[in-house]
Design a protein that fits this description.
It is a single chain. By secondary structure, this protein is an alpha/beta fold. The protein has helices at about 1-10, 50-60, 75-80, 85-90, 120-125, 160-170; strands at about 25-30, 95, 100, 110, 130-135, 150-155, 180. The strands form two sheets. A four-stranded parallel sheet has the order 1-7-5-6, sandwiched between helices. A three-stranded antiparallel sheet has the order 2-4-3, with no helix packed on it. The longest helix is centred in the last third of the chain and has 13 residues, at about 160-170.
Length: about 180
């Protein structure tokens, strides 16, 4: 009767430790500023205009109905990274002398987004991700706040340099998952 009791309670053999949790996936966010959907074959263009993006869309998620929250790059990117509308995060055109950042050589100014709103990069960093931003867009400047949370945020001179740097990031020997914004 004692042996039967041990077998029923599991006391006769120790439990194996639970397996480690799976590694979180890498996350890649690609923004093609000022690109129209109908220019890409993934969205119905009959010419093979975007074979690499088509392959990525086939293996991932293709959004077929997307609306920008702003009419230009800066407020749209700030909304993407905070989840808030421009009138909440504060990223928009500004006036000289009101704390706005000059966006030379263009003759206009932009206001920084609110500092109390967490960014996507900050959230990924808090979850243990390696966070990298690579862009040829000068609006992604630390002065405007969008690079907050990236351990590596670079503005490069040309798109080709961005692509090369992204390849290096993805090939890097790092155990952490990566959140890569290009």
């Amino acid at each position: 009767m004692f042996a039967l009791l041990l077998a029923c309670t599991g006391a006769s053999s120790p439990e194996a430790p639970p397996p480690p949790p799976p590694r979180p996936p890498d996350v890649l966010v690609v923004v093609l500023d000022t690109a129209r959907a109908d220019a890409f074959s993934a969205y119905g263009n009959p010419r093979a205009t975007s074979p690499q993006l088509d392959a990525l869309a086939a293996a991932g998620v293709l959004f077929e109905d997307a609306t920008a929250p702003g009419s230009w790059t800066w407020p749209s990117h700030a909304s993407l990274f905070t989840g808030e509308f421009p009138w909440v995060h504060g990223a928009h055109f500004g006036e000289p002398g009101e704390g706005a950042v000059a966006l030379e050589p263009d003759p206009f100014y932009a206001t920084a987004m609110r500092e109390d709103l967490p960014t996507l990069a900050e959230r990924f960093a808090a979850a243990g991700y390696r966070t990298v931003s690579l862009s040829a867009n000068r609006l992604l400047t630390p002065a405007l706040g969008l690079t907050r949370g990236f351990e590596d945020a670079r503005t490069l001179a040309e798109d080709e340099l961005v692509v090369a740097a992204a390849g290096e990031v993805l090939a890097a020997d790092d155990d952490r998952p990566v959140f890569l914004f290009v």
